[in-house]
Design a protein that fits this description.
The protein has 142 residues and is mainly beta. It folds into two domains: 21-76; 88-138. The chain is built from one helix and ten strands; from the N terminus they run H-E-E-E-E-E-E-E-E-E-E. The strands form two sheets. A five-stranded antiparallel β-sheet has the order 3-2-1-4-5, with no helix packed on it. It is elongated and about 80 Å long.
């Protein structure tokens, strides 16, 4: 009977150790950097701060982290705008040669892949993130 109880207790302890290790993995927020654009510490959802390795991440950025055993590796979480996203003006920078805009630059200078039918390079467009694509239309002068 002691043997069975001992095996059960050992199994429970092993499972708890595994769960506590996996609890570190998940979404965390960068709280400190090395000044070279790398996150060095992050806080989890419970507020616990841990030492992490996150290349190209800034303080305040939300990251997806995984415990690799010898380190906690973090990467930026891609954020998709909500379906009710605000329309923003973008300028078409490339087309498919058939009158459809395929790439545009936003007001902050970022270049994104877009779907803009009947639009030429250089045209200003109203664009909205639909979650699976950025839909663009010619700016109306009403």
């Amino acid at each position: 009977m002691r043997h069975i109880c001992g095996k059960t207790l050992g199994g429970i302890l092993a499972a708890l150790c595994l769960v506590s290790t996996l609890a570190v993995a998940g979404e965390m927020t960068c709280t400190a950097s090395d000044g070279k654009g790398n996150c060095t510490a992050a806080a989890g959802p419970d507020g616990t701060t841990l030492v992490v390795v996150g290349e190209g991440l800034k303080v305040g950025e939300v990251m997806d982290c995984q415990d690799r055993g010898n380190m906690i590796d973090c990467h930026a979480v891609p954020r998709v705008s909500s379906m009710a996203a605000v329309t923003q003006k973008m300028t078409c920078t490339a087309s498919d040669g058939k009158g459809n805009c395929t790439t545009a630059t936003g007001p902050d200078g970022t270049t994104l892949v877009v779907v803009g039918e009947g639009l030429k390079v250089g045209e200003v467009m109203d664009c909205q993130d639909r979650g699976n694509m950025i839909d663009c239309h010619a700016v109306r002068n009403d």
